[in-house]
Amino acid sequence: MENDPSPPASAPRGLRSATFYSVLASLCPWIPLPWIDDWALRVVRRSQAKDCLRAVDAPVNDLKLRAATGTEGESGSGCWRTLLLWPVFRLIGYLIRKLFRKFLFILTIHDSTHRGAEVLCEGLLLRRAAVRGALNGGVGGDTGVEEARRVRSAIEATLEEVDPLPLRRSVRGALSGSGRLLRRGARLLRRSFRRGDEDPDLPIAEEEALLRPVVDRVEAAVDGQLPYLRAMEARFDEILDATAGGPAGGGNGV
Predict the structure, then answer these.
(1) What predicted TM-score, i.e. pTM, was given to this entire model?
(2) How far apart are CA 148 and CA 157, in angstroms?
(3) pLDDT tens profile 69-127
(4) Cys staple from 37: which of 14, 31, 192, 222, with CB 3.0 to 4.6 Å?
C-alpha cells in the first residue's frame, strides 16, 4: 500500500453511558400518558447529568442539574394531574390507538429517534465539559448554576451548527425492529414515576439487563460516526472557550 491507513480515532469518553441514556430517552415517547412522557425525559436527562458530574467528582445539586440540562422552571406537577385523571386518559388513549394505530406508531418511532439522538449528544458534551473542569462549581455558597448555564448555552449553540442528522439516522437504524422491546422498557420505566416523585430512582439495573442488545446496536452504529462526533466535540470546545475567554481546561485524552 502506498500510504498506511491512519489509526482509528478512539471513541469519546463516556460513549457507553451516553448511549444507555440515549436508549432510555428513546423509551419516553412510548409511555402512552400525557405529561408523564415529558417528565420521564426530564428525569432521564438529569440522571445522565448527575452521572457525568459524579464521574469526575464534581459537585452535584438540583439547581445545577436543571441549568445544565435546560430544564430550569420545569416541574413534574403535571404528573399528579395525570394520576388523578388516569381513568379518563386510559379510555381516550385506547380509542385513539384503535383508530390511529399505524400513524401513532410511525410518529412514536420518529419522536423516539429524535429524543435518543438529542440525549446522546447532550450526554457526550456534558461529559466533555465535566472532564474539562467546566462544571466544577457548586462548593459552599456557589451553586454552580451560572457555569452550568454557560455549558448549556454552548451545547445548544453547537447543535445548532453541527447538524445531528447523521446521529439520528444511526440511532433510527439501530432502533429499527426493536419496538416491542422498547415498549417493555417503557413500561418498566413508567413504574418509577407512579409515586409522583420529582426525582425518582430509575430502574437502571433492570433497564440495562433488558435493553443491553439495543444499547449494543446503538453504540456500534454511533461508533461508525466518530468523525462526526469529533467535529461536534471540537466545535463545542471552541464555543465553550470563547464564552469563558480561554480554554476551560485540558481536553487531552477525552
Answers:
(1) 0.80
(2) 14
(3) 998 876 554 444 544 544 555 555 545 554 454 545 667 788 888 999 999 999 999 99
(4) 31
